[in-house]
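Lecture 7 notes: from sequence to structure.

We start with a single chain of 294 residues. Read the sequence below before looking at the structure.
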Amino acid sequence: MTDSPDRKGELVKSVSPAVKLAIQIAAFESLQAGSEFIEKEHLLIGILKLRVAGAVDAIRNNRHLMKDIMEEKKAIDFPLQNAGIRPDMFYRCIRLQFGKRVFVHKTKVLHRSTECKRCFGRAGQLAHDKEITCVHLFIAIMENPGEIIADCIKRMVSGQKPVGDPELPLSMQVSQSVKAYEKALKEKETLSQVIEHSRKDLFGKDRDSPVYRNMRGDLRKKTCLLARMCINTGDIAGLIASLKELVSESGTYDQGIGRMISQLEFMQREEIGISEATRKKVFDMLDAFEAQAK
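Now the structure, written as tokens:
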């Protein structure tokens, strides 16, 4: 059991289900390490281990809850992986560097450390009037990671190209990458809504009119842009939907596109990331679709 965020006059703020799970994982990590408090290192491990949600029946059997938790995990994992940081290796490094302590708890309540509470306070500022998510907590931790986390990041990204502004500390570069990813997700969502409205506007229009042809060409360009955003954010499901929409709208279909969609569906099922070779092939297909729209 952990102390609630409203203890000792802290500002009460709602947190996402993913944060609640991360706190429980962090508490277990703290106990295993023999630590007196839940430290920010344990909290980061909890965030990086959100995949264990699939092993919790109450979460796994709730499709919407599972989806929300996995979306937060993806918003952190994808930019990390792009920076050459494997989340599983990252949390193992933190655990090893933190080491074992000898504190024995005499009560059932496990408290967060002052530094851990500071991370929640900062995450609340980042969230503004919305609930705190694991993305907010992750960014708050990376702004002031401390020696253990900073050292692990250096080990993980050794030999890798910078992930953000090379003048910033590595931890801030990682934070910058996650913020950019979160911004890209919002832009993708906005474009999806624009495309949906554009499709509705096509209904009832004369299919032989220049206006209809121009609107359809513009819609195809926007759908191609959405597909590129899906690639850049690792959204395989969105990419598949965009490709199918382009094929349906253009009436153009060949075995190459069919094989690509089947390959992407396999990647989605097996949770395999999009390789550089696959990215290039999809970009070539999108170039061809965009050329048809001119």
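The domain at 7-178 is CATH 1.10.1780.10 (Double Clp-N motif). Keep this in mind for problem set 3.
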